Amino acid sequence: MDNPQRIDGRADDALRPVTIEPGIAPHAGGSVLIAFGLTRVICAATLEAQVPRWMREQSVEGGWMTAEYGMLPYSTLQRKARDISRGKQDGRTVEIQRLIGRSLRAVADLKKLPGHTLWIDCDVLQADGGTRTAAITGAYVAARIAVEKALGEGRIKENPLREPVAAVSAGVVGSRALLDLCYVEDRDAEVDANIVMTGSGRFVELQASGEEATFSREESAALVALAEKGIAELIAAQAAALAAAGISG
After folding, report:
1. Distance CA 59, CA 64 (A)
2. For the domain bounded by 18-244, which CATH number is listed?
3. Is 156 helix (H, G, I), strand (E, B) or coil?
4. 137-148 pLDDT tens trace
């Protein structure tokens, strides 16, 4: 018996429709509006001529890359209160922005950003699952555009980004391994994974957990194989978006 179609009609190994629109925030050094299906995130990169205090105090050479992430109040079906209204960031927000920062730093030579910090701001306009993976994928494109602008202005001398980085979710839903989960699939998943990889096929991060369930080595391998396929397609989409912005590589 054939497997039933997914809620949006995709094959098990298919991404949602992906679009990456550069130039969405003109005052940023680089920006994109990235969509994974109905999930939409603005990613903007800004280069500042300063580094964190701990780098100055410890005389650490080079620069820094870091990220901030937030879900706008109207990004979900029910209004999500801003963190500032609660007086602190929630744990999920902190976890995701640290993951975005780690992902960018994994493909960067920070010594090529002397005295500078590249800030990546990721704001979720609409959430339908996979906001962190869309944010990472869009963050790289925004960062690359900002770096190209800084090179052109003579603010830095070398491109610190060695290769692309992208991320995608995968999961086991109804005993089936699926790529790029939408919200309903993510909600119902027995196993949920978020996988970050570089353009050369190396892993930055593997996050996988059973939701009141366990999973086998074979299921884990199936999720990784799905992610490898999806990330290769996402990196091609990144390259196309950069080409549209007049940037190669």
Report:
1. 13
2. 3.30.230.70
3. coil
4. 999 999 999 999
